[in-house]
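Quick entry between incubations.
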Amino acid sequence: MKDRHQTTSHEIERYAGLFAKRTRHMRSSAMRDLMEITARPEVISLAGGLPDTSSFPPESFAAITDKIARQSCASALQYGPTEGSTRTKECIVEVMAAEGMRADADDIVVTTGGQQVIDLVTKTLIDPGDVVICEAPTYPGAVPTFSSYEADVIQIEMDSDGMRVDLLEETLARLDGEQRRPKFIYTVPTFQNPAGVTLSAPRRRRLVEIARERELLVLEDNPYGLLRYEGEPLPPLYALDGGEYVIYLGTFSKILSPGIRLGWVTAPGPVLSKIKLGKQAADLCSSSLTQQFVEIYFQESNWRRYVQDLCGVYRQRRDAMLDALAEFFPREAEWTQPGGGLFIWATLPDFIDTGDLLAKALREERVAFVPGSAAYVDGRGGSSMRLNFSGADVDGIVEGVRRIGKVVDEQISLFSTFAGRSSEAPSRDEPEDRPADPPPDVRLADVVELPRRGGERRAQGS
Amino acid sequence: MTPRRVALLKGGPSLERQVSLRSAARVEDALERLGIEFVSIDVGRTLVDDLRASDADVAFVALHGRGGEDGTVQELLEIVGIPYTGSGVLACMRCMDKVLTKHMLLEEGLPTPDFFAFSEIAFKELGAGEALPAIEERLGFPVVVKPAAQGSALGIKFARAAEDVPEALIAAFSYDDRVLLERHVEGRELAVSVLEDEGEPRALPVVEAKPEQQYFYDFEARYEIGKTEFLCPADLPGDVAARAHELAVAVYRLLGCYGFARVDMILGDDGLQVLEAQAIPGLTDTSLLPQAAEAADITFEQLVEKMLEQALARTPASATAG
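Done. Structure below.
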């Protein structure tokens, strides 16, 4: 066997010795392995953040790709400018205008998904140990990005009106005292992922003022703003600030397709030039092919109507999930009531670790959700979960929630047997015991504030 | 005997699916290098048909966790009549069930930390909750709470005080309907792999796992390169190493393993204690059996080759005997 290449543990140690220090902050976890199982066909997954791409008409897809093939085959297969094609940027200006933002195509860089914006902004602004402020809970996909640049992430509690800006100010004052200045505040102000809540208008104004007063940058991540199922839209931070301290992240993922991997960033000039350099180093340019797809789609189809159609579908699914939660989740559970977006955040009694619960849910009921701890950097969120209502159809949602409710009920009734305490488990037979829903504000305030426990115990052994 | 065509069983729906896929990927590479023809089967509803269609004369079982490591797949292989790598049905059942393993160890007089085991029914229908204080007193804190049948340290919790116990139980019951409360033994984590050589179980050099920072060798520490420092052979006094070898072989025989297995131990103040045995130890890049084999000058390819030879040498009788 002398000529065969062999992997030995010595080699593994050698590789480990070559890893950059920052890889120590890149964490894999048992959870991520469990999430792989959620992709299996027998599993009802309420875990992903998948938009329903099945509603996109295949005829449109065929017509667009056919047109690319006939008219611009060579350029579609070619590299493009780092900042993106002008025509794609014009489409972006149109999308931003639909949410009340006036953007200049020259101030836009087209990126490979919105995720790349988080990466590029962090890369541009953060040295190891620098502070990033974000919501608690925050977008789970941002956590590994912040970690890989060794940011010190500080999370600010939310309530039904989004990030508690008063707590933000307290935190900023505390950091002043420690002579530490955060580089940027990352926020998903509208239909937040994972909590589903929206930053109120007064808080939006205050947040923009704070950024201005302190000369701090805000990264506004807005994938869901157009997916509104009720109520009036609120102005994006970018519109309030005029793009002076707010970096805006947009994406085609939720209004068209995540598969085309196109997002964008709009930022103050000096920041944008650095981002452009960062993008050059990362991938030279985003896909010319999919940019052309967007351009032709915007030219020939009514993108607004498609978004409206999506809203109709998702509204129905959100309602189905809220109804199913009321029917199948125990009385001790609480959840948010999002007016748009893709997610509901549910919180269970704190003796339940949703990471372990996911194992039970997958094993016994073949159903999946995202455990809440993924949305925190400090081990909190252990008794919460993120539920997605865009990826499964109504039947799947109802059945999925029923199955999760079943495993939760089992854990609650088991827990009640431990210390001889009386069963606090809810009874399906006595729905009249359920208290009338309190006004949403109060209820949401309880739900999203999650300072329930220190990170220490959760962080261990899971 | 050289295998003509190998059916490599991998994946499946168990919680350790990813670990299995990583083990299998390495075995696939090895089979390619060895020039052995193989077909990979992701274990699912069509397994029996897939096996029949595979035209394989031997199966390599690279499955971990429920279904793959607990005798279920082994039983199916017996029925389909394809010889397979590793232990038979009964030994797999004994290894997978930590409670059964520990009872057998006790009966044989082999050292294992004190423990109590409960089923969900004991709590729900027999009032086992009332016994918790007595158990806690007897075991002392911290107590380790484990699901009876779950690998890769999934669901293992430490309860440092009485108030941590209910939550730890809930967590462990997420993985199995039986759990184990075990006295925590502070000490060095050792793994002794056993590989049969001409029908005789032989202990391979002891591997010590030193997690970088975790309280114990958890899932992440197990599978992420660089998260755990492995010492092989472990730096142990000669008599301790010899005792570890002796113990591993004794456990291997007691459980009726075949071909190979791994015995996990802890070296505490009171000497060596056996925690559990793995009928199908991991074969990933960071797994312990391949490291131990390498320390004994057995390459991964040779290890795979040996496992297949053992499988082919097994008569149906020895396969069913455990």
